[in-house]
Structure formats: structure tokens, C-alpha cells
């Protein structure tokens, strides 16, 4: 029988999904080639055998899954996962919505996927806006999979007590607990995006080459480029991103007040700091 993933971290983007992937690697069954398969969004027509090849080498005695943060706001991904893996355990992670949106936009801007500045990103960039609709999409995931099969994580808990944060994930997916301080990546800033690309035209070509290789499952070659001096020369060292103005941040918070309150009802957690900005993080930006 085909073995299906036991869990999927659906995001949304820039909520510590990459950090979780790095920390949990070796303690659960992940693909060694790609954190995000994008199967349930971009590659569904390639078939289930194509998807499951990513997990062929996973140990059979460990829970198996993936982290694909763009699934969160995708109705197609949710419906397809429900059809293919109806008992899948779903991990949703959240952070201060302005922090998340700004981090998401920086990633798009650095990779030259948008020329829109952050002041207008929330209204013009669908991915940034929809991924911030926490209550709306969380309710849909719970409706599809049941409340007992959806874990809600909060970035503030990661900052305050990383061990308990990871323990909660392990318990939810049935993985053995481990001592986080023994992890070589636990204290690292993962996938941080502090500045724009230094050489935009070259960076765009490098990005396109990596995307082309990944889409054809030539992941080792893509990884070599991603870790090469060429990548660092292209993408690092540009202009540092300035934090959003108070006016822009306040406008975003006001527009998302209903979403935050909806998530409060679902999670039974006080998120008033997200409405005022008092919970905004100035610590590490784990992607």
C-alpha cells in the first residue's frame, strides 16, 4: 500500500515553517530534496506517484510530512489534501500579522517577484493579503479536517519557550520528543531577508534558473546554486528594508481586526496585542 504523509504544515508563509523544517529534520520523515513540494497547488496534474517519490526514502518508523506554507490560503490545496489524505494532521502557524505581511513582502521584493512597495502591497498583492486572513482560512481547515486534527501554533510561543513549542508539534504528529538545544540549527536565523538584492538583474536570472531546476526535480543542482557564492553575490548586501510606517501598520491592523478576532474565537487565545501592535516582534525572523 502507498504510504501517505501523516501531517502537512500549511503555513501561512513567514511563520517559522522553515525553522520547523530544519529543526525537525531527522526526527520526522521529510523529503531530503525539497521543503515545499507544491504538489497540491502547482503540480497536482503530475499525479500521486510523482508526489510520493519525494518521501520514498523516509523512515517507516517516523511520522512523515512536508511544510508547504502556500497551501494555507489555497482552496484547491485544502480540497485536494482532504480528498487524497482525509486523515492528515494539519499544522497552522501564526505571527503578528503586520510582521508576517512585511516579512512575506520582503521575500517577494528581494526575489524580484514584485515591484510594488510595502505601502501598497496589502491591497495589490493577493498572496500577501490572503495569507493574512487567519480566521477565514483556519476555519476552513478545521471544517475540512476536524478541530482535533488541526494544530494552531503562535510565533510568540516560539520566542518565549522554543522547547515547549517544538514539543507540542512532536506530540501532535506522534514524533518522539528531543532536546532542542542539541539541534545545530535551533538558534540560527533561518531564511532571514534583511535587504534587497544587490544585483537585481543577475538575481532574477539566478532565481529563474533555480526555479527551472526545481520544477524538473533537479534539486541537487538547484541546492548547489542556492548555497553558492553566486547566490550570495546576487542577493545579499543590497539596501536594507525599512520598517513600515506607523500609519501603514495601523491601516493593516484595522483591516484585519475581524480576522484576528475570528482566530481568537477559534483558538480561545487573547490576541489583542496583534490589534494594537504591542506584540510586534523585534527578534529573529524565522521564515
With helices defined by DSSP (H or I, 4 residues minimum), what is the helix count? 15
N- to C-terminal distance: 35 Å
Largest sheet, in brief, is: 4 strands, parallel
**Outline type:** globular
How many domains? The number is 2
pLDDT averaged over residues: 94
Looking at this protein, list some descriptive labels.
287 residues, alpha/beta, Rossmann fold, 2 domains, 15 helices, 4 strands, globular
Strand and helix map with partners:
Elements: E1 7-11, H1 17-24, H2 48-52, E2 65-67, H3 75-84, E3 89-94, H4 97-110, H5 118-124, H6 126-130, H7 134-145, E4 150-154, H8 155-160, H9 162-173, H10 200-215, H11 219-226, H12 229-235, H13 246-255, H14 257-267, H15 272-276
Parallel strand pairs: 1-2, 1-3, 3-4
Helix pairs in contact: 7-14, 10-11, 10-12
Short recap of the structure:
47% of the residues lie in helices and 7% in strands.
Characterise the protein shown here.
By secondary structure, the protein is α/β, with parallel strands linked by helices. The protein folds into 2 domains: 7-192 and 246-276, P-loop containing nucleotide triphosphate hydrolases (Rossmann fold); 195-240, no CATH class. The protein has 15 helices and 4 strands. It has a 4-stranded parallel beta sheet, sandwiched between helices.
Amino acid at each position: 500500500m502507498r504510504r501517505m504523509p501523516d501531517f502537512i504544515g500549511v503555513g501561512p508563509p513567514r511563520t517559522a515553517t522553515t525553522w520547523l523544517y530544519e529543526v525537525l529534520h531527522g526526527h520526522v520523515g521529510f523529503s531530503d530534496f525539497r521543503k515545499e513540494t507544491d504538489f497540491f497547488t502547482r503540480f497536482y496534474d503530475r499525479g500521486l506517484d510523482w508526489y510520493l517519490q519525494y518521501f520514498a526514502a523516509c523512515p517507516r518508523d517516523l511520522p512523515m510530512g512536508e511544510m508547504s506554507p502556500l497551501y494555507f490560503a489555497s482552496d484547491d490545496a485544502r480540497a485536494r489534501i482532504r480528498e487524497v489524505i482525509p486523515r492528515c494532521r494539519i499544522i497552522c502557524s501564526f505571527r503578528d500579522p503586520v510582521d508576517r505581511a512585511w516579512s512575506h513582502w520582503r521575500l517577494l521584493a528581494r526575489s524580484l517577484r514584485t515591484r510594488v512597495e510595502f505601502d501598497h502591497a496589502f491591497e495589490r498583492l493577493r498572496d500577501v493579503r490572503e495569507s493574512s486572513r487567519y480566521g477565514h482560512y483556519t476555519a476552513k481547515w478545521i471544517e475540512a479536517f476536524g478541530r482535533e486534527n488541526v494544530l494552531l501554533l503562535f510565533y510568540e510561543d516560539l520566542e518565549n519557550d522554543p522547547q515547549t513549542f517544538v514539543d507540542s508539534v512532536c506530540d501532535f504528529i506522534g514524533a518522539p520528543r528531543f532536546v532542542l538545544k542539541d539541534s545545530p540549527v535551533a538558534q540560527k536565523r533561518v531564511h532571514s531577508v534583511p535587504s534587497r538584492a544587490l544585483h537585481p538583474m543577475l538575481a532574477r536570472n539566478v532565481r529563474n534558473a533555480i526555479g527551472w531546476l526545481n520544477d524538473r526535480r533537479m534539486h541537487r543542482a538547484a541546492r548547489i546554486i542556492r548555497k553558492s557564492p553566486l547566490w550570495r553575490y546576487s542577493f545579499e548586501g543590497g539596501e536594507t528594508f525599512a520598517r513600515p510606517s506607523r500609519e501603514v501598520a495601523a491601516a493593516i491592523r484595522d483591516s484585519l481586526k475581524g480576522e484576528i478576532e475570528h482566530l481568537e474565537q477559534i483558538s480561545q487565545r487573547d490576541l489583542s496585542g496583534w490589534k494594537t501592535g504591542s506584540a510586534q516582534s523585534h527578534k529573529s525572523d524565522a521564515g
